[in-house]
Every structure is written in structure tokens, then in C-alpha cells.
Amino acid sequence: MSGFAFRRRFGRLGHVLRAHDAAKLPPEHLFAPLEEERGPEVGRIEGLRKELLSSTATISDFHFGSGEAVASRVTRVAHECRYSSVPARWCRVLFRLVRKTKPANCIELGTNLGISSAYLAAALKLNGSGRLFTIEGSPSLTECAKRNMTLLGYDNVQIVNSSFETGLPDTLKEAGSVDFAFVDGHHDERATLDYAGMIIEASSEGAILVFDDIRWSSGMARAWERIAADKSVTAVYDCYDIGAVVVREPGATRKEFTRIRA
Ligand SMILES: C[S@@+](CC[C@H](N)C(=O)[O-])C[C@H]1O[C@@H](n2cnc3c(N)ncnc32)[C@H](O)[C@@H]1O
User: Fold this and answer.
1) Which of 185, 98, 86, 173 has the alpha carbon at shortest distance from 135?
2) Which whole number is the average pLDDT over 228-249?
3) What does pTM read for this prediction?
4) Does residue 149 contact residue 121 with C-beta atoms inside 8 Å?
5) Given a cut of 80, is residue 29 above it in pLDDT?
6) Are 217 and 187 in contact (CB under 8 A)?
7) Alpha-carbon radius of gyration of the chain
8) Dist CA 133 CA 117 (whole Å)
9) How far, in Å, is the centroid of ligand 1 from the Cα of 184?
10) Is the Cβ atom of 141 under 6 angstroms away from ligand 1?
11) Measured torsion, CA atoms of residues 113, 174, 168, 200, in degrees rounded to the nearest 10
12) 167-185: per-residue pLDDT in tens?
């Protein structure tokens, strides 16, 4: 996309990000790949992804799609895995952010079959501490994800079967504070802003919040722009498909914007 098209589509934020690009090197400390990403822990998760992709099993219950719960449907596990799970290259970004920032409390909205949850759990396991609360509205997907966590041997994950609307406030209460969050579901402008607001309020100093599909729709692009502009956000990393923000980073005197090819 040309600079003009980028600015026209994403407005002032696009302009600021472009201007900043020229001036600043990418933050290597957060986004540089780790040797471990080629290690056995990640290998086992990708092995599971491969199995799920060739599974002939079906699941049947109501589903949330991109937000609201809709009538019952039957879907194939392989289809869910192919079209809903975060691809390996973005899962590796989540993994490295957790390895590098060592969060105590992590929150995920949108468990699905548990692929991104597994990457987060693997990073926490390698950190030697920390726990993940992940919320999924579909009861059948929740069961599948629980089985997958057991298969992979991650006991640092609590999977909450609930709508985000009701599950998030309770989960935030239980977690106490948030050091890392991944928002990957209900891609609606208003809903995303509501979830982001609740998570930002519960965030510790320096917490990292990652949002998937920030350019999935014009509403999501607007939500991302508002989140990036929030006064509590002190650094913004725009990776085009996903975006990450740092909340109330100690010592930050001005907002940093960076575009990254992750
Ligand atoms: C894109 S998938 C998540 C993929 C997962 N992070 C991964 O990489 O494996 C989004 C999930 O969020 C769930 N979801 C969407 N809107 C929801 C809502 N309002 N409440 C609860 N779950 C919801 C869907 O059922 C779906 O499984």
C-alpha cells in the first residue's frame, strides 16, 4: 500500500506511524525472534495444529463467529483450525513477547481450539511462572481447548466458558491485574473498545496488550486508532495485521509509535 493510501485509510495515526518509521529503528528487544521458537515446545504445538487440520471430527453448538452468539451449527474441527487459529508466525510473536516481558497474569479473549493459548502457556512455562486466563463462548470449543491443553501438558491455563461480556469482568477480578492480554474475537468496534477499556483499567504499569485483526474492518481500524490514542497508552507497535500497545510504561514521557514488520 502506498503512503498516500495508508494515510487515507488509517488517518492521522497512519501519518504519525510513517513519520516515525523514518526516525526510529524497530524495537529489537521486543520483536526479534528467539532461538526457542524452533525448539521442542513450539514443535509440539505445531504438531497438534497439524493433527487438528487433518481431523475428521465435527463439533456442534451455538457459535459466536465475529461476535454475537448465533443459532446452533455443525462445524469441522479442521475448518475451525484452518480459519480461526492464529497462524504460526503471529503465534511466535505472542510467544516472544511473553518470554521477553515475563508477565504474571495473562488474559486472552477468544480461545477457540487453544492454539494461541498454547503458545502463551508454553512461554509462561519456560518463564517458570505466570498464568493464563482465556475466555471462549462456545462450550464445545472450550472442551476441545481443555483437551488440547491436557494433551500438551499445560496446567498454567484456566479456560473460562463464557461470553466476553460477562466473563471478562469476573476474570479481571480473579486475575487482580493484567500484565499481558491478547484480544482475538468479537471484532466489533464498540465491543473492542469496551474490552480494551476494561483491560487498560486493570493493567499493571508496562502491561502489553495485543489486538488481532486491527484492519479486519473499518470499525476495527477505528477501534485500533482510539486504543492507540488512549492517554494510558505510552507505546504503540503497529504490525498491520496485529497491533500491540504498552500501558503506563514507567518513565515514559511521550507516546512512541512504531511500525513493525514482525
Ligand atoms: C479467532 S477465534 C480465536 C482463535 C484463537 N485465539 C487461536 O489462535 O487459536 C475467536 C474465538 O472467539 C470466540 N468469540 C467470539 N466472540 C465472542 C464473545 N462475544 N464471547 C465469547 N467468545 C467469543 C469464538 O467462538 C472463537 O472461537
Assistant:
1) 185
2) 94
3) 0.90
4) yes
5) no
6) yes
7) 18
8) 9
9) 6
10) yes
11) -110
12) 999 999 999 999 999 999 9
User: In whole angstroms, what is the distance from residue 112 CA to residue 217 CA?
Assistant: 21
Residue listed under C-alpha cell 496488550? 209
| 12, 41 contact by CB (below 8 A) | no
Q: Supply 250's cell numbers.
A: 514507567
CA dihedral sign, ordered 195, 209, 221, 7 = positive
Question: 247: which 3 cell numbers?
Answer: 500501558
CATH architecture of 3-259: 3-Layer(aba) Sandwich (3.40)
Mutate to test the pocket of ligand 1, among 49, 152, 161, 164 (most ligand atoms within 8 A of CB): 164
SS3 199: helix
C-alpha torsion sign, points 153, 157, 161, 164: negative
Question: Nearest to residue 160, comparing CAs of 196, 131, 136?
Answer: 136
Are the C-beta atoms of 76 and 63 separated by less than 8 Å? no
Length of the chain as a residue count: 262
